[in-house]
Amino acid sequence: MTRNPPPPEPPARPPRRPAALTWIALACAFAVLLVAVAQRRDAPSGDRTVGEVTRVGVADGGSVPDYLRAAAAELTGLAAPATPGPGDYALVSFGTYLTPARAAAALGDTPVAAVLARVPLAGRQTEIVRIAALRLPDDVVAGMAEVATRKDREAADYRARAAAPAASADPEAGRVYATGAAVAAREAAAYRAGCACVYAAVVRAAPDALRALTGRPGVRAVDPAPEVTRLDRAVFTPPLPEQRDVARPPVDTGLAAPAVGDSSEAAPTVSGFSRTPGAASTGRDRPNPAPTS
């Protein structure tokens, strides 16, 4: 008698994970996801404009008449904003160097953010300073007093360098330092007296108010800059009153002055020699990487 083989044994099943452990694992994963989302939301998004500078004005070597025509055309076509606001920034150039009081009269009630000034010494490339000014003429007078104090220190430093043994061994260097001391002392005296040194201003107003500025006495040009949103990332290079054809540094008939470093754009005064830096073309440049030197 033939016997049938016994049926095969069913395969062994893996041990079943308790349901409680599964729910605990899911809860931990969900908690980790929530923490990651919260951290991403709280993390600063960053400022994409860091390192970019917008230049407004006439470039070094650029045609001043072409710049004036381009600024006038842009001002004519400037459209009113869709929503009410403080208006657009603009660079106002004056036809001559003005005292703080005369600059205030030329700008009238137009809101001002800053003025640009230099002491117009014949045959000298004097320093350009940018003075934060919301109330004219008071803020400009106060800013000039601060510049005068700094110029006093600068003159004293040059005199000390001229008297140092190293300058005695190098007469040419001694003459350069002595010239720097004399120029700085004259600048200090001019600013302390509230000189006629203001040649441009940065204002902010609606298009109609900006266009109205062009008819005011002393105003040479109004260059609207709607792309400027932060003054600490904008460089303004208006033409000097004596620049009529090409924007070039004033002729310096004296000894070359020692270099003066630029201070921070965020400071009350931003300084640099009276050269008009920029690209080779006239008008305004798109945001460029900030200079590293």
List the helices and strands and how they pair.
Blueprint: H1 19-42, E1 52-57, H2 64-76, E2 88-98, H3 100-107, E3 112-117, E4 127-132, H4 138-163, H5 165-169, H6 171-192, E5 198-205, H7 207-213, E6 219-225, E7 234-237, E8 269-273, E9 288-289
Parallel strand pairs: 1-7
Antiparallel strand pairs: 1-9, 2-5, 2-6, 3-4, 3-5, 4-8
Helix pairs in contact: 4-6
Mean pLDDT across all residues, rounded? Answer: 79
Integer-rounded radius of gyration: 32 Å
Question: What is the helix tally?
Answer: 7
**Strand order, sheet with most strands:** 6-2-5-3-4-8
- Shape type: elongated
- Class from helix and strand fractions: alpha+beta
Strand content: 15-25%
Output the helix-strand order.
HEHEHEEHHHEHEEEE
Low-confidence stretches: 37-47, 256-283, 285-293
What is the β-strand count?
9
Distance between the termini: 106 Å
Describe the protein's architecture and organization.
By secondary structure, the protein is of the alpha+beta class. Helix content is 36%, strand content 19%. The protein has seven helices and nine strands. The strands form two sheets. The chain has a six-stranded antiparallel β-sheet. A three-stranded mixed β-sheet has the order 7-1-9, with no helix packed on it. Helix 4 (138-163) runs antiparallel to helix 6. 32% of the residues are buried. The model is unreliable at 37-47, 256-283 and 285-293 (pLDDT under 50).
